[in-house]
Amino acid sequence: MSSIATSPPAARAPSRLPLQLVGGWEAGLLLFMVLLYGAGVYINPAFFGSTDAFSAVLRDTARFGVMAVAMTFVIVNKELDLSVGSVLGLVATVFSILYAPSHVDAGVGWAVFGAVVTGVLAGLVNGLLVTRLKVPAFIATLTMLFIGRGLVLGLTGGKTIAYERKAADDPWFFSLGETNALGFNSQILIFLAVAALGAVVLAKTRTGYQTYAVGGNEQAATYAGIPARWVRLRAYLFTALAATLAGLMNVAQDKGITSQYGQGAELIVIAAVIVGGASIAGGRGRVLGACMGAALVVLIDKVLREGVPITRTIDVGGIKMEVQAMAQLPGGAVQAFLGIILLAAVLIEPWAIKGGGAARVWARLRGHEAPPAPDRGEAAIVGAQTKGARSDARAMGARGLRAFLARRDAAAIILVVALWLVGMALRPDFWGSLDNSFNLLLAFTEIALVSVGLTFVIANGDIDLSVGSVLAFAGATAAFLMKELGVDPWLAAAIAFAAGTACGLVNGVLTIRYGLPAFVATLGMFYIARGLGAWLVAGRQLSGFPESFNLLGRNLFELLAYFGLEPSGGLGLAVAKAVSTQTLLLGVVALVAAVALGRTVIGQMVYAVGGNERAARYAGIRTDAVRLWSLVFSAMCASAAGIIYVAYLRSFNPSAGTLRELDGIASVIIGGGSIFGGFGTIVGSLAGAAAITLIRSLLSLQIIMPDGSSFVLPQHWMNVFIGLILIGAVVGDIWIRQENILGRLFSSRSASGRHA
């Protein structure tokens, strides 16, 4: 019997890079960026035709790119980190305070050490909140955003800290932000090194495999022996370290900081990772794509901001002269385009690929019958979102004070009363006056209106990040129509309200029709609406509106006087001067919303969808319609707040509504709403909005001391207080109501007492 020896075929070298590192998505991004850069060269060859432009794009990409590398790990993990911008600002602030001669005046080594410790602690807190305390990643990192931003404002006092002269003594560190001997900024080298390391770790190491496994199916990964909790916590440490490095790169370049450092960076970084091909649903993403997404965002900004060189003819004393100028897009165009690109990138998977949209379009173009849309089986993949708790069961049979204390919104109501009493104790001569009450109600109205709409969205288990931008867009529309086009004030208000409502309709369609997570759809609208608003007013502040329109923001006395019906004295005069028109409008909206949510079938459907969408669908509820109209109603409330904002201030500023989405979300959660859905009341949300308003008023209150001196509480720290209250409300909801930690503790004690 003979044997034939066979040799294995010789291994052939791969013809392309491994797909774990690069794929077709990155090739498409590269082609798009080449075309975009070519457009920049065409419209402005003096800038984009030079190597300086390419170097400037990479330099500005470096800091966002470093954070995008780490954010890829978090998003692949099926989570999110909204705190990276605040961590960047906080790290830069700690470094500056330690290093600046005007403050601690420590050495650069100690300053770097303090910055790194600060960043690691921030990441550790984020990770522990998410993994140990079971706080949703969105809320945990949103809280860190609040606290970090508050610490930056508090530590800097809202001022700039500079140390350019001392920086000359430590060139080894500050050269990191300068041009090196090779002719480009050293930050580019740092970015490339971090990108290469991150790409290899995510694609070719156990750390990366574990990240993909946990993001794809955490339960299966746990059964396979992967420490899922550690994998998730580790990702937050990565983002914190990346934000720390980006903050140090910032101070190395600027040799100082402002109190606005890092503001808005988190949304740019998240947009970069999503545009780079990562799935918000987890389990997919590459570092190279995220880095290219960051470069694309910066390139869009450069191309749109640089403008087109033109020649203008001006008349000087009857003599016509030609001068060189730059034609630029109005302010806000960059944000609007960024939002559109973000949504387009995210829609490619659910619509063009999984939904078969591209195939259907191609078939229609060729005159063929379009293939049927695939069945996504949406109901089968939706699980229960709301957990029951013994405290909820006890509330059903409670009476009197116990029934009130068992309410989810009781803590917020008690907090409001306590804050009011603190104000009365500190300044009884001022706090209880009608003038102060009027001012408090004015400040309260804007947040309250936004929170009323968000109550429906959050009770549905969704989120709306666009309300602040919709507020600004509606206000800008009304201001533009009245000031620039001379439109009748009430018609302008109606058009502005319709424009803002349309934003909510787009949010709903993207979420329901195309299956985008509400977070992603409203994040895109966050950019688009704010960009369109700034575009309308060309980035300017507008004022000088008709007085009949401004009455929306005045007190009731001025409104009645306009029609010749003002009271002459007594209680009627006092009330008319203390109550504003917008407060009455808020009262009507809140009353209708409270009845609809708490006493009608509409409200029961909202709670059902938020509690368990699959069960609600089986019960015959049109869950898609409920979620869509909740997002539309949220936009309607934000639009009304924007119109009132313009009338109250008698002007419009493009920064209107900044961070109002965070205030609104915090109000609903503080007021007893659950980020998981299924809970929430209008009374609770109003109480949460009142608590935030009172905290801000207390922190700006001038306190009179017994010796006649006075001082004002440190109002720069208000976001820290709001963040702490928010995380306390969420942790209490999870551990006291859902996990029933107090009930289990008392049960274990009573059981041990019986055994003893």
Automatic annotation (TrEMBL):
UniProt topology in membrane: Multi-pass membrane protein
Database matches in InterPro entries: ABC_transp_permease
Organism superkingdom: Bacteria
Subcellular location: Cell membrane
Regions that span the bilayer: 27-48, 60-76, 82-100, 107-129, 135-156, 182-203, 233-252, 325-348, 410-426, 438-459, 465-482, 489-510, 516-538, 585-607, 628-648, 668-695, 716-736
Alphabetic keyword roster: Cell membrane, Membrane, Transmembrane, Transmembrane helix
Record has Membrane as a keyword: yes
Chief location of this protein within or outside the cell: membrane
PANTHER family the UniProt entry points to: ABC TRANSPORTER PERMEASE PROTEIN YPHD-RELATED-RELATED (PTHR32196)
Name of protein: ABC transporter permease
Protein source organism: Alsobacter ponti
